[in-house]
Amino acid sequence: MSKKHTFQTEINQLLDLMIHSLYSNKEIFLRELVSNASDALDKLKYLTLTEEKFKNLDFNPRIDIKFDENKKTLSIIDNGIGMNEEDLINHLGTIAKSGTKSFLSSLSGDKKKDSALIGQFGVGFYSAFMVAEKIIVQTKKAGEDKAFAWISDGKGEYEITPCQKDSQGSEITLYLKDEDKNFASRWEIENIIKKYSEHIQFPIYLHYTHINYEGEGDKKTEKKEDKIEQINNAKAIWKIAKNELKEEDYKEFYKSFSHDNNDPIKWIHTKVEGNLEYTTLFFIPKNAPFDLYRVDYKSGIKLYVKRVFITDDDKELLPQYLRFIRGVIDSEDLPLNVSREILQQNKILSTIKSASTKKILNEIENLSKEEQQYKEFYTQFGKVLKEGLYSDFENKEKILELLRFDTTDKEMLSLKLYKENMPKDQKSIYYLIGENKDLLKASPILEKYAQKGYEVLLLSDEIDSFVMPNVGEYDKIAIKDASSKQALEELGLQEVDEKSKKDFEELCKSIKEILGEQIKEVTLSNTLQSPVALVGEEENAMMANLMRQMGQNPISMPKNLELNINHPIIQKINTMKNNEEFKGLIFLLFDSAKILESGNIQNTKDFTHRIYTLIQKTL
Ligand code: ADP
Ligand code: MG
């Protein structure tokens, strides 16, 4: 009895895109189907090693590809885990995968641009509808009796019906569109498999017909012969000795493994023997994966135990801040039936994790020796690396060394160089955090540092306000917020003398009365160039950070308003009467200081109103 089902709405959206796709790289559909077949084989292999029920199964994992040029069909066959009726509905009728979901949510409605994303996201099974007008999946789940066929033309509905199939596994048959019939050819298939699936761990066999011509002239006859050849090398490349591998081998493996079309910028292949025995092969991609900053990003590391695939869904195999790394960890010491819970707190894995982390950080350091190369790496991954400052205490110093900063007069500066350039009397490393670099550069606080010839790091990543206040020090030098009282005191700039303090005492009082809780205190300075500046305290920044870590919105602490007693505006204001006009000017000065500090003010209407009054007066 056959049953009709409708696709989940999102799938229809996806299918619509596939069917109308003008994507030039359609061939990736084969990569997707082969990787599904390989996953299915991995799953069954795992069961035969861990479950009593499957221990005696005669299992030679393999993938077969058949095609028929005349009928324009192409079949991908595996003897893996297979699917039952429920699996078919859940896996080929609904989207559970986060990758596909993010793909859909990034669709813009611009068909051309959207189809360019297909290759980047690798949208799995459904990509077959780019080339097929109909697909039939015949499948039987390992250990079950019934087989089912799933049939669809990708237009809203699919049908499931019982079918005949002897062995476990799946056979996916594509009925190719006329314009895509070229995929039903020996050379085309061989080329695509070589390109994307060379390093799939299971043998891929291609079935084809070889034609022999016998006799001469009139007596010439055709003799057809069916042949099968293996078209990939089916080796776990990470288990091959380094000196037997060529650059191309790594690159090809990376591409088939990560579905990234770019070459990786670096790979790190390590075999460890001794107390623990394991092999790791890590790649640093050229570009950041699309989901790097999503909470549901997909882990790029696959865990194997003695070459048996265990999981690609464990985000703890490497620290989170290295989540852009792609690769393989293969342990000889873990039991095959490690459960998720065990993985979480497994000693062996945590040893591998910390050794791998050090290794990767060292390689990134090597990368940093070549400036241009590092710049490219850093624009992609610098921000995520910074997260390590609060999550990986053990490697904090190393991470600090890898970070690069824009400063008051340089770009991409390392702390090491910053330190080397420090004038003899400079006590700390200073940074200023703000919305963007232009805004930061306009900050009056910097005038003081410029006077001393001190460079200041200008930080505008969102994460900076989160991590920097807690870094503490680099290479035994304290790292301080340049706008904090503590930092400013270190500048040892000339104090305001007693006489001036007296002269401005009244003014300070009046200003505090006018601005009230918006500021902490009014202070005096003879080192500013601007008339006023807002100056905070180190503890406030730390407090704000602490609150953020506890998941609360930090309340912004009032800062000190600093007056430049040498500035004509301040000197003039000091002679004014405390009236409405005076008040208006104080508010204006305060707002200007706020704008320079954060780029925005609370009450823009009052602000502009005061500006208009001022303009009117001068006209
Ligand atoms: P993904 O492979 O990323 O999960 P796909 O769209 O490629 O996404 O496949 C969806 C699901 O369909 C797979 O997760 C798997 O459960 C099932 N599936 C696809 N092909 C096969 C197959 N050859 N054998 C068994 N299950 C399969
Ligand atoms: Mg898939």
UniProtKB/TrEMBL annotation:
CDD domains: HATPase_Hsp90-like (cd16927). Keywords: ATP-binding, Chaperone, Cytoplasm, Nucleotide-binding, Stress response. ATP binds at E32, N36, D78, M83, K97, S98, G99, Q120, F121, G122, V123, G124, F125, R340. The keyword Cytoplasm applies. Residues 1-340 are annotated as: A. Residues 546-619 are annotated as: C. It is found in: Cytoplasm. GO terms for molecular function: ATP binding; ATP hydrolysis activity; ATP-dependent protein folding chaperone; unfolded protein binding. Residues 25-180 form the Histidine kinase/HSP90-like ATPase domain. GO terms for cellular component: cytoplasm. The keyword Nucleotide-binding applies. Homodimer. Molecular chaperone. Has ATPase activity. Belongs to the heat shock protein 90 family. HAMAP family: HSP90. This is Chaperone protein HtpG.
